[in-house]
Design brief:
The structure is a single chain. The protein is built from five helices and five strands. The chain has 120 residues and is of the alpha/beta class. The protein has a single domain, classed as 2-Layer Sandwich (Transcription Regulator spoIIAA), CATH 3.30.750.24. A five-stranded mixed sheet has the order 1-2-3-4-5, sandwiched between helices. Helix 2 links the parallel strand 3 and strand 4. Helix 1 runs parallel beside helix 2. The longest helix has 16 residues. The relative contact order is 0.18.
C-alpha cells in the first residue's frame, strides 16, 4: 500500500510505502496528481520515503508502478529517494537512464534536507 499526500501549494507529492505495493496503489496516486498536472503542467518534485523497500505484492503491481513512471516522469522536475535501503540508495543511478527528472538519494535521517531540495 502507498500512502500519498500532495502538497498542492508547493507542487510536491509525498509517497510512503506502507507494506508491499499493490496494483491499484498507483491508480489512486494518479487520481490525486493527474488533475494537478493538468492544471499546473508539472510537479516540482516527488519525495519517496521508505525506511526499507517493501517490494510489490504481485507482477501486476510491478507493471502498474512501471506504467505510472512511464506516464508521469516527464511532468516531474525532481525525485528525492529518502531511505537507508540499499536498493533505493542506488535508485538515482538507475533512474537517470529512464526518467527526465533529477533524482537524488537522501539517508532516512535527512528527510528535511530532501524536502528543502525539492523546494529549491
Amino acid at each position: 500500500m502507498l500512502v500519498h499526500q500532495l502538497l498542492a501549494n508547493e507542487g510536491i507529492l509525498l509517497i510512503r510505502p506502507d507494506g508491499p505495493i499493490a496494483a491499484g496503489d498507483f491508480e489512486l496516486v494518479a487520481k490525486t496528481v493527474d488533475p494537478y498536472i493538468e492544471n499546473k503542467g508539472t510537479l516540482r518534485g516527488v519525495m519517496i520515503e521508505a525506511p526499507s523497500f517493501p517490494g510489490w505484492d504481485s507482477f501486476a503491481a510491478l507493471m502498474s508502478h512501471l506504467c505510472f513512471v512511464r506516464d508521469h516522469h516527464r511532468f516531474v522536475a525532481k525525485v528525492a529517494a529518502v531511505s537507508d535501503s540499499p536498493i533505493l540508495s542506488i535508485a538515482p543511478e538507475i533512474a537517470k537512464h529512464f526518467v527526465q527528472a533529477e533524482v537524488r538519494h537522501f539517508n532516512a535521517t535527512d528527510r528535511d534536507a530532501a524536502l528543502a531540495w525539492l523546494r529549491e
